[in-house]
Amino acid sequence: MLNIVLFGPPGAGKGTQSERIIEKYGLKHLSTGDIFRANIKGETELGKLAKSYMDKGQLVPDEVTIKMLQSEFKKAENPKGFIFDGFPRTNAQAEALDNFLSSEGTSIKVMLALDVAEEELRERLKKRAEVSGRVDDANPEVIQNRINVYKAETLPVKEYYLKQDKFIEIDGIGTVDEITNRLFTAIDKL
Ligand code: B4P
């Protein structure tokens, strides 16, 4: 199985690029953000809980997120592999993912990290707010909180994969096509 973690700060383009990667390589897309948003829309208990964190730009608690991810993973039938988009976002999630994948007889091949400067992130999220209707995109304070949470809680996950020699940084500035090509080149070399 080809299992890839697509990593990067809020608004780096993880969702945008995941769509293209799954299409080319036939992988299954597991986006924790998308799954939470679907639950919010469906007004499930999980959705209500997730909304109370997401609207403030905070992370949903690890225990809830890990359980949800594992359950979605198990739903996939004969997958060639997975793109983990927006997960893991903490070291505890990274460790849980390793343990879980190992119990399923597989592992993470690589973390591809999109590198995008903070100013550009703010611009992209501001633009997306005009069309997405996402509460967490609409408020500059919430955006700043997401960026701060990323630096404090999510960035350390990079070290986790660096230590395992599974970390590749990709320049995330440029057109969507340019970045896709960089990602494809990195994946083809694996
Ligand atoms: P996510 O849904 O993961 O969203 P994101 O980080 O904001 O966006 P992404 O990087 O996917 O950006 P996109 O491609 O859309 O998380 C939302 C929230 O869910 C979190 O804050 C948290 O509360 C919760 N959550 C999710 N996972 C969790 C976890 N594991 N643990 C705990 N909580 C979790 O791109 C952004 C915009 O940029 C788009 O409008 C796009 O069109 C544009 N864009 C993309 N590429 C571009 C380019 N090259 N040039 C210009 N614009 C570009």
Automatic annotation (TrEMBL):
Family that this chain belongs to: Belongs to the adenylate kinase family.
Pathway: Purine metabolism; AMP biosynthesis via salvage pathway; AMP from ADP: step 1/1
Gene Ontology biological-process annotations: AMP salvage
Keyword Cell membrane tagged: no
Residues binding ATP, per UniProt: G11, A12, G13, K14, G15, T16, R128, G174
Stated role: Catalyzes the reversible transfer of the terminal phosphate group between ATP and AMP. Plays an important role in cellular energy homeostasis and in adenine nucleotide metabolism.
NCBIfam families xref list: adk, PRK00279.1-3, PRK14527.1, PRK14532.1
This protein's GO CC annotations: cytoplasm
PROSITE patterns: ADENYLATE_KINASE (PS00113)
Ligand binding (AMP): T32, R37, Q58, L59, V60, G86, F87, P88, R89, Q93, R134, R146
PANTHER family assigned to the protein according to its UniProt record, in alphabetical order: NUCLEOTIDE KINASE
Reaction equation(s) it catalyzes: AMP + ATP = 2 ADP
Keywords: ATP-binding, Cytoplasm, Kinase, Nucleotide biosynthesis, Nucleotide-binding, Transferase
Region of interest (NMP), ranges: 31-60
Organism: Taishania pollutisoli
Pfam families cross-referenced by the UniProt entry: ADK
EC numbers, comma separated: 2.7.4.3
Chief location bin: cytoplasm
One GO MF term: ATP binding
Protein's name according to its UniProt entry: Adenylate kinase
Localization per Swiss-Prot or TrEMBL: Cytoplasm
Gene3D superfamilies from the UniProt entry: P-loop containing nucleotide triphosphate hydrolases
EC class name: transferase
Cross-referenced SUPFAM superfamilies: P-loop containing nucleoside triphosphate hydrolases
This protein's domain notes: Consists of three domains, a large central CORE domain and two small peripheral domains, NMPbind and LID, which undergo movements during catalysis. The LID domain closes over the site of phosphoryl transfer upon ATP binding. Assembling and dissambling the active center during each catalytic cycle provides an effective means to prevent ATP hydrolysis.
Subunit details: Monomer.
